[in-house]
Amino acid sequence: MAQLWGGRFTKETDKKVYDFNASINFDKRLMERDCEGSVAHAAMLAKCGIITKEESTKIIDGLVAVKNDVLEGKLEITDAYEDIHSFMEAKLIERIGDTGKKLHTGRSRNDQVALDMKLYTRLEVLYVDAAVKKLLGTILDIMTENTDTYMPGFTHLQKAQPVTLAHHLGAYFEMFKRDRDRLKDIFHRMNYCPLGAGALAGTTYPLDRDMTASLMGFYGPTLNSMDSVSDRDYLIEFLAALSIISMHLSRFCEEIIVWNTNEYRFIELDDAFSTGSSIMPQKKNPDIAELVRGKTGRVYGALMSLLTTMKGLPLAYNKDMQEDKEVSFDAIDTVKTCLDLFEGMLATTKFNKDNMAKSAVNGFTNATDAADYLVKKGMPFRDAHKVIGELVLYCIDEGISIDDCSLTKLKEFSELFDADVYDEISLKTCVSKRLTIGAPGMEAMKKIIAVSRDYLEHDWQDSEFE
Ligand code: ARG
Question: At a CB cut-off of 8 Å and minimum separation 6, what does 163 contact?
Fold first, then answer.
């Protein structure tokens, strides 16, 4: 039980208390970020004349050596230390001796952990953004191939009007694009450095906070030391963004599960992304889609957990805030895995174009267009709605679609029907006439695909780090 304090205490910490208090088992994943922060701090201490240049170099070399030893498996992070900060400091002192004891000058674990967590989260925001971007690329490729793959569009999960696969997937393109916008916003809002805030009230050493901020790629230092050590907004925002990504993935999974049923047969999942049953030989289950849908719950859970942890905390640091880590790490890992697997599943899915088109024809998705046809021939819309309603009822009884009715039969419902009706209500015509911005008509769709392609080619991360 190596500890950073002792002077004020006359008794050893109870073992159970020590274990309950410790965070090393999960904050060890901050190791590289802790090293990065300490290196910047040591460089700044020398520049400000608080330690010598030689001491600073010795500390920095020592920290990097400790980090490399851990990465190479030569040094194990064990629970003999309370947290990653104590571990790194202890190992530094073991390695370079008393000079190592100067590293913590003008710093507290409160600004240290605030920094480590921010550095960690900042990177993860970029990783998640890149994973969403990859998914967007896959979606756009499928869209490009399928501007004339007809399928029913649904409301209330009832067939409504014909759309195309490109159009349907285009909806998800917009959702995930907004997700990336949220991540970009979060990055811009969070990218300020808390180091130098000390325990809560800054420090009396003449630290150069601008220097450490810019060394670590922050836009600048945070502006209130109490807020610096107690702010976890950025993490909550990130968990909210992850929750929304999960919600989008989950909706998409739900559709994939439905489309994969025997009743729909819109898609065929690749064998590599499906599972079988231990008892029913005929089964090919969409477990991956179900798991991604299911894991949404734990991501929402992380958001609720941290919001609740933070809600009653007085300023500034409180140990409750250590609870930010496990749930956040889990949510971040979960969403990254889900994005990756989902992208692989989607990229390998086969779309049964014939079944999709048949489903659109059989579902009276051209009923609105049939009514519009009568309107064009002079009938008021409300009357046309009624005529087509009766016609649909007849077709349901006969087990046919409107397109299957002979002209003589159609004329029994309205004299206004002519031979041109078949072309006017064909799936192709119904879709191709829908040409307003954002509609499924091929020409409209192709414009959106071009805009989307252009969007993917101009990455905010490229302009951020050029
Ligand atoms: N393990 C702690 C955390 O995650 C580090 C900060 C400790 N600070 C303190 N005053 N006990 O929040």
Answer: 150, 151, 152, 153, 431, 440
